[in-house]
Write a structure and sequence with these properties.
By secondary structure, the chain is an alpha/beta fold. It has five helices and twelve strands. Strand 4 and strand 5 form a beta hairpin.
């Protein structure tokens, strides 16, 4: 059984982008762990409340097979936390599986882990510019898989994103 770490914003994460992939991972017999900046209750854009299992600063990166960053209006705030950016850089240095959905691939881009990768993102001028500046190739598809990377464009493909995470674990 592998573990997947889902990183969410403290406020305004996208509910189904967490819940659907988390369910797919757990239904496949793997463990899903949720982290945020603190272990205080997080609130989704649609009203879901989640108490994270741990704070990002307390993550032992070697415990996880995939680190997945969840989108939503609050997700860009994650870029303001060195512990999040450092964790993503460590994951890249260890050649770990990474994933992000909706606006969150922009966070991977800002962490410098998308160089030379094909990726997708919820398309805004800022998010597309971030991918371009990071040296990623923007692919206009709902879900894009590249070596050790899965990106998805938004909540409408949350289930498919989750299934790709499970494929990555197998």
């Amino acid at each position: 059984m592998a573990k997947v770490l889902f990183i969410i914003a403290q406020d305004k994460f996208r509910d189904e982008e967490l819940l659907e992939p988390k369910m797919e991972v757990e239904n496949a017999g793997h463990e899903a762990v949720v982290a945020s900046i603190t272990t205080n209750t997080c609130t989704g854009m649609l009203g879901e409340t989640i108490t994270p299992d741990l704070a990002v600063k307390d993550v032992n990166i070697d415990d996880y097979a995939i680190i997945a960053v969840i989108g939503g209006q609050g997700a860009p705030d994650l870029m303001n936390y060195p512990e999040v950016m450092d964790l993503l850089k460590q994951a890249k240095a260890k050649d770990m599986n990474l994933a992000a959905i909706c606006i969150a691939p922009m966070i991977l881009a800002k962490a410098g882990v998308l160089q030379g990768k094909n990726a997708t993102v919820y398309q805004t001028p800022n998010s597309m510019a971030a991918l371009d500046e990071a040296g990623a190739t923007m692919v206009s598809q709902d879900v894009v898989v590249d070596t050790k990377l899965v990106t998805a464009s938004g909540p409408h493909v949350a289930k498919e994103f989750g299934l790709k995470l499970v494929e990555m674990l197998n």
